[in-house]
## 1
Amino acid sequence: MLKEFLFDVCTNHFVSGFEHINGQILKKYFHPYTDSFEKDKLGSYIFKKSGPGNKKIMLAAHIDEIGLMITRILDGGFLSFTTVGGFNPATLVAQEVTIHGRKRVYGVIGIKPPHVTSEEERKKPHKIKDLFIDTGYSKEELEKLVKIGDIATLNRDPISLQGSLISAKAFDDRACVAVMLETAKELNKISHKSNIYFTATAQEETGTRGAKTSSYKINPDIGIVLDVGFGKTPDMPSDSPELGKGPILAYGGRLNPKLTRKFAEVCKKYNYPLQHEAMPAKTGTDTEALQVSREGIPCILLSIPLRYMHTSVETIDLYDVEITGKAIARFINELDNSDLEEILCF
Amino acid sequence: MFLKELTELSGVSGCEYEVRNYIKDKLALMGCDYYVDKLGNIIAHNKGRKQKTIMVAAHMDEVGLIVSNIDSDGFIKFQAVGGIDPRVLNSKAVYVGDKKIPGIIGSKAIHLMTSDEKEKAMPLDKMYIDIGTSSKAETEKLVSIGDYVSFNSKYVEFGNNLIKAKALDDRTGCSFILELLSMKLDADFYGVFTVMEEVGLRGAETAAYRLEPDLGIVLEGTVCADMPEVDEEDKSTLIGKGAVLSLMDNTTVYDIDLVRSIAKIADDNNIMYQYRKSSAGGNDAGAIHKTKSGAKTAAISVPCRYIHSPVCVASKNDIQSVLELTKLVILENQKGEDHV
């Protein structure tokens, strides 16, 4: 089910600022496990699973993804573009794209062939301004289909690799939206007293904006922020977190220390694998906004290890998604059976 | 009609099995005589009226990668087969080996790149393929050094009659020869599907030696760089402007009388054509025209944008022009009128 959800949600786009277009997909998957739905005014999706108690726990995983925005329509049916969120231009070379114009327009971002490219040129990475989308239309035809400001996304059919590894675009942060789905499902089996708000936040990639507005709207007692972390590859330090070894729990100044320890205890108690990471200050996640929402929200941050972040071949282990979803459900259950005030008291 | 299927087969130089088997099946279905030579070229014979020996050649192989090592964590190192700009490999899906194990070539997260890394293109020796295994032993069960790797890229039609696929260089040529053979023309010619063009015109050399043609016609997908901000002299050809006639490249100075005679056939029959305005690159003509005491050879090509990448682009109109022109050139040359 998680894989089906991820493949479905990752072949549709939710570029920052355009999260409203494909919302029905989220609703389809979350409605069976939640009781009510609302949105904040920036486009964050909030699915509430009600409990008998009065505490509010907010889970936050951003639904938005990085994308391209059309800036110029050129002769010969080529398009110039800028980026929405942080792209490495090198990852855009020789990619297929869809421009979400009046209709879906197919395009490719090609480069000069090696035959007419000097050795010197090949050593230099492309900049965004050197790249063009080739649509195969004339300028006049294209002007009827595409407008400046339209969004384009990379085409990538999700791929099943060996074992439970999968690869696609936008697992940052849909992997964690899938974690929330797993938690929602699991909470049908494990009791909970708190009201749980599964929040697919908008505009994280452009500055954690949906987290700010949705947390204001929800006004939760605690926040569980879910994002992706850097999974180990050959070009990273040997002690980096690895795929398939559970979520990465963050420790640092922007996170609540006691709540963080509590999560680690629950994982230990129920034998859920856990990896650990120190994040002294900035986390680059929705925590930045959540922690200082209203009068402050005690937060924990869990990351799903992911390889090749911000490329069209982001790679995760489904096992990590599933285990994290289950561990969070257990954590919620344990919190509901503890004195939350005492945990949060300094 | 063959092109979609042909481009979706893997056939990196030296590993043309899938393409060869596909073509053999098609030849058998059309009842065409053929044999496979010692290097793996397919030599098919269309029997008909004959004034001279004509060899029409297209190469089956495509550029790709070959597995060179498997590291301790199971990641796969590779080298390029044929001319590939490493920059087209970043963040791509590939198939590894005969079993077509799905893999990806990733890229370090931009968040982790140093400013120095951002200013340099990732060299080939820093890249690796990830198939999702977690140890060397696990990878070795599925992949061996020497396995070939091809791009995962589907055939797509888009824009104004354009197509995108991998390996348009030179599955366009292979599809032309299959089309020509299926026409059962009353004009004798050998349709030759060569191997290992991308690694030095190997197959064409032995096939030409065997056939000793009076006339060689190479059918190709060729360089086209008619994109914004490319210098005029680098554009080479223009997409949608018809069949490309080569004058000179790195491997051949084409017989000018032959080239002009082909241009005249195009003129007389209102077939759109253009001259190739770059001498970069080369093709099987380089081997064919030097065989034994020499053979006059022409190259008729389809302009292909982004050639040697997973996303080659060509125009169906140009494809039609090349097919039509080649057919007429064959017919004209077997009429007995001396165009050579």
## 2
Amino acid sequence: MARALISAVLAALALVGALAAQVVLAGDAQGYVKAGSRAATHGACVEPTQYMRRHHMDLIQHQRDATVYQGIRGTRHSLSGCIDCHVGPGSDGHPVAVNAEHQFCRSCHEFAAVKVNCFDCHDGVPKGGPLSESAQSAMDAATQQGLGRGAADGSVRSAREGQGQ
Amino acid sequence: MMKHPPEGIDQGRRALLGVAVGVTTAVVAPGLVLHAAALPSGALAGAQGTGPVTDSVRWGLLIDTSKCAGDCRACVDACDRENGLDLQTRPAGQSARAWADQKAVWVRKVKLADDLTGRVTNLPLMCQHCEHPPCVDVCPTGASFKRADGIVLVDRHTCIGCRYCMMACPYQARSFIHEVMHDQLSRVPRGKGCVESCNLCVSRRDHGAPSTACADACAEAGHHAIVFGDLKDPGSAISQALKGSPNRQLREDLALNTGVRYAGV
């Protein structure tokens, strides 16, 4: 019976070991996510982590074309969504650009030796919001009065609600 | 040959398997539960999606030059703030004059003086959002394009900075970014080597805001010289104004059918 118990414990250890290897891999991914960023409080990205690792660029590019050509501003796969969620605070509490040294985008791209040029044009820190303050106040006023452009013809396109910026 | 009796179940083996499963479950299950709990509730929910823009609208501006004050720059300043143009910095060593020529500008104040009569007309000049835009005709990469709702804009991802569109535009409405940029606004990305121009506050359009920064600022300054709206909606303020009083396109001889119209010129 003692031998049986030892065998049982060994079998259990083997199973746990196999699972632990997966956890270590996942922990490796977590290492790039910066403490203090919104991403660090979530267990998963907008898609499963493994999928995001391999395909995030395709998702961002697809969203990019939909936004530029069709005006679709969904946040799910947008670069600004990535930045909003992954930007972390520096030692002074101010947000540090996601493409700065040791930050989320840069550290992984350096490890993978892949150049990232999103940030030639996009800033790595959320700034200004999707609407300027004046636009936001104009919109609020229009909504309150029910006079929003298209309130009658239904062409008002729903604003991004609260997410991030 | 010895044959196991069917009723002789090996109880030791059964116990071993039972213990192994129990131990594994005890170790792994909390992890799985925590992992499931860690999934953000909203992260995988559907996006607050907005559909693609359609040609059921055509955005445009009507500018009443008789209401435009010569010394007022409210529209220009508002445009600069809205679109992050005020975040451009003069490169070291460049003269103020060269910088004034070179920095990106989306709205220009233009003064027209009639030599014969002495009459002076002021007007803001920006991209005219042509139905048949020459900039789109000449673009070698397809970066310059017209959106379904009539807004002419540049896909910076495809722009190679050849500046052919700047040559083609009869209104000198386009600017080129000469220097590396930092601290751009999230709603208006901008980088070295691309051409850009007025996009009728496209971010506002996509979020359903009622007007443009220039029109708002002009109204706030008390002039009400700029009306923004849908040219295809006969009931809109801009359509009513266009129908009700004389107005024209700049360089109408080019037959571009501009989305920006002027009264009093």
